[in-house]
Known about the structure:
By secondary structure, the chain is mainly α.
Amino acid sequence: MYYVNREQIAVRLQSITEIASALDMLASNWQATLLEGLAQERALHLAVETVTDVGSFLIDGFILRDASSYEDIIEITGEAGAFPADMQDTLIALVKLRKPLVQDYYVWERTELHPLARTLPTVLPAYKQAIEDYLEREL
């Protein structure tokens, strides 16, 4: 029997709506201001943390193979069928941003709109729904 912490997964998935909305607003009205650049950084960082936290809960709960990297979290949960295969490349590109956002923030280009800011407003809600569907199906 699996113990999947659905409560903690749900708490994290709830943030996706706000993150996607913020990225959508930023992408739609981008003026390259410092405040927008910092907001974009934070929204992308929150997206990374949300996706990796949810993935880690799924890996632990369903006793999937151990992940050796953030990219591995996406690959493992993708292989388990937690989200559609066509979403995997975008999610891997997202989690690859963690190091630049957290460790190399001093060289992050704040005046440029990151390409994922235009993509994630549709991908993140679809990811949220896919995870919810996966949990219903598997549990």
